């Protein structure tokens, strides 16, 4: 008893204890947001002011620089923001809900976790009932960057999907599929021939997210155990076409603003899709991620030139 009293008196009157704690919280805030209990900051929603005269490589570099996030959410925070706000809009019945990205189906609700947006019957007509609801799709697959931060939590390339379409897509490149082995009949998403074809409703969204990812992260290790040529370079023309075929709709523009609110960055190709053309196919093909440049120097590696 006496010992406890002395101990609490020590805690109460010892100024160093308090200052030390305060210092630790400040450090954690900078290096690891996961341990901080204070809510993440939010930013006043703004658009980028991109000089009209920029094009090609200069425009690519400019976009690379301006799209750096002002705040990196933890992966768990990012998922909460996505399900509760960023991708939580209005369903056709006028109530809140989340659109399953590859299924083009809206599931009512306002929850922070995907498992609450349950598929009770096979509403997306893919032959499976996703009783575990939705999870988080990384348009640029996590395995290509070892689930590292900041890529893993960057809402610009995250989307809510039913669990089965997400599993089926796995880490496949996006491209047209002619003889599908799996199909989401509610939307037209398909799997086959080593590719995943997103539905027409989000082909442009996929293309703009991929172009954003390359511009933002080409200087990071984002091509681990993958064929960059098959995944991106040989698909640039197709992605450019998808960008034109499926221009940004209100949902995509709204989410772009909300991403800015939470991360302090946005996808400029959603604000102005013509920037993709202005950078140009050749520049997109030549701005290869760092580890690709390194592996290209090894003459034995032939997989990179495979089409
Ligand atoms: Ca289903």
Put the structure in a nutshell.
The chain contains 13 helices and 8 strands. With 307 residues, it is an alpha+beta fold.
Question: What distinguishing features does this structure have?
Answer:
alpha+beta, 10% strand, three-stranded antiparallel beta sheet, disordered C terminus, 2 domains, disordered N terminus, globular
- The number of domains is 2
Which molecules other than protein and nucleic acid are bound?
A: calcium ion
Shape: globular
The helix content is: 40-55%
Counted beta strands: 8
Strand order of the largest sheet: 1-2-3
**Alpha-carbon Rg, integer:** 22 Å
Strand content: 5-15%
Q: What is the typical, i.e. mean, pLDDT? A: 88
Q: Major β-sheet, in short?
A: 3 strands, antiparallel
Number of helices: 13
- Judged by helices, strands and strand pairing, the structural class is alpha+beta
Task: State the distance separating the first and last CA atoms.
Answer: 76 Å
Low-confidence stretches: 1-33, 296-307
